[in-house]
User: What shape does this take?
Amino acid sequence: MSKNNINKVSLAGLVIALGIIYGDIGTSPLYVLKAILNHDLIPSGRFPELIIGGISCIIWTLTLQTTIKYVVLTLRADNRGEGGIFSLYALVRRQKKWLVVPAMIGGAALLADGIITPPVTVTSAIEGLELIPAFAGITREAIVLIVMSIICVLFFMQQFGTYNIGKLFGPIMLIWFIMMAILGGSHLMDNLGVLKAFNPYYAIRLLIDYPGGFWLLGAVFLCTTGAEALYSDLGHCGRKNIYVTWVFVKICLILNYLGQGAWLLAQYKNGTLDLGRNPFFAVMPDNFRLIGILIATAAAVIASQALISGSFTLISEALRLNLWPKMKIKYPSEEKGQVYIPGINTLLWIGCLAIVLHFQESSKMEAAYGLAITLCMISTSILFANYLIGKRVKRIWVVVYLLVYLVIELSFLGANLNKFPHGGYVAIIVGGILFGVMYVWFRSRKIKNRYVEFVRLEHYVPMIQELSNDKSIPMYSTHLVYMTSANNPKEIEHKIIYSILNRKPKRADIYWFVHVDIVDDPYTTEFVVEHIIPNDIIRVEFRLGFRVEQKIQLMMKRVVEELYANKEVNITSRYESLERNNISGDFQFVVLEKFLSNDNELPFFEKLIMKYYFFLKKISLGEEKGFGLDSSYVQVEKFPLIVSTTRSLHLRRVYPEGES
Assistant: This one.
């Protein structure tokens, strides 16, 4: 969505917003109150305090965390209409170098959340079958099998794109929210005392006075886990559409929570309370429950779909920002934002199946859920505070923002840490591995850049020209293209000069040096051409946004066509027979692939980083494919990466006897 359209409200935009961004937070009533009731000990006579206080915590969490932090404040930090933690990082990364750390932590946490959300939402929906008499004898193995089958179909469908099926998401989620509002509203009269939950006094009292009340925040937090999606999908829906739909969504959510609470209080008063029943499904009329479960399952699938698609977008951004190894990216449709990454799809699929098999019950999965996403929210708070500083907001307001939200989110983190031994370790391990990949990829690049040798191009221009005109050397290619990492147009890597002049002299008519600069704007597609020696040596710099696919071969073709049309370059072959017939010369790309030289003496930690980096590089996409180059036009040359020279060797020559 363009910057011009970000503030426009449309009916289509409202329906799309419902379908895309509210899946996770919209399905939270399936398990939040059930998780609160899963508390180890409910003291005699204090059940009403638990329900009213718990719902009060939910209402004020949705207000402070989702409404104020994300909808009112964070959505303003759009990067040309795009949102998400990496878009926010792109806005502030030039302020302080260390901000890459919270960005990586937040990105890793979001990916870990993407592995846990599909199992917990789908399992919670399918477990509703246990409340239907016809399925009363359904076994745990059958539920696990159904959940795994749904997850397998969901991930299989990713390769075909979700544009067409995505058109159904909005109407289905609209039905879902209306159903929740009606079900909740119809039970308010069961016990109007539940309305006291709007008073924050009951939330505070629960946290302070109720036995183990603070640890209940771990369950309460589940009501806002999808808040990050509001910001991540800003570019798909637009700010004003999110503003309008959130009012509707929040009303439906609160009505449902209140209805569940009123029903529970009535059951408690009547002495018929069964803590083993999920109150979300228990409030449904018996003859509607099967339909309700089907709608809940559809909503759970949509919630899972949104997080999977969000994970693809997140990784594609990390790739452009050099925070993730190169991976194969596919674009299933022409629709903007439709991205499919086979490797990530397989990783998420295996992770989701492992979660289902390991925990089997949604109540156990909830223990792993929420811990990782708190780290993401803390990271967003840190990055957004720096965004406010960059916008010259008064420091007092920045301090107030940080104090309020770090206290809230660190409290949630502390409460969620109680989940660690009960399954939360899964989220931390997964998130830690993903953070490790990002850190190694980022850190290794910094280590390499310390030792990359750049030379002044002007010193070698005469030699390159002389080589180009030396007919005693066989022609290597009419047009020879090198990818260079030199930001300064007057410099070039020494290894490129070595490749042209020393390794095997490469005679060409025109030498092209191509540099890709990733800019903070998400969709920039610009190029700059510098004729170092007209018709002999040309430098092309592509300035691409971090959400733009790097199809360098296609882009180079467009650049050459424009230069030829403007008569800035002659692409005709200089072979006499071909030149007479006006035949264009060939293009050959040379990609220099590095390997770690044995002639290195690095500190232990950096040596570990570099070994892990080359392992990741070995299993990831090659440089040529990462740049979108056709392998038939690419020559890959391997160069040793010497990042630290060995100590000087003292060798003494010894002569054989009789020789001096």
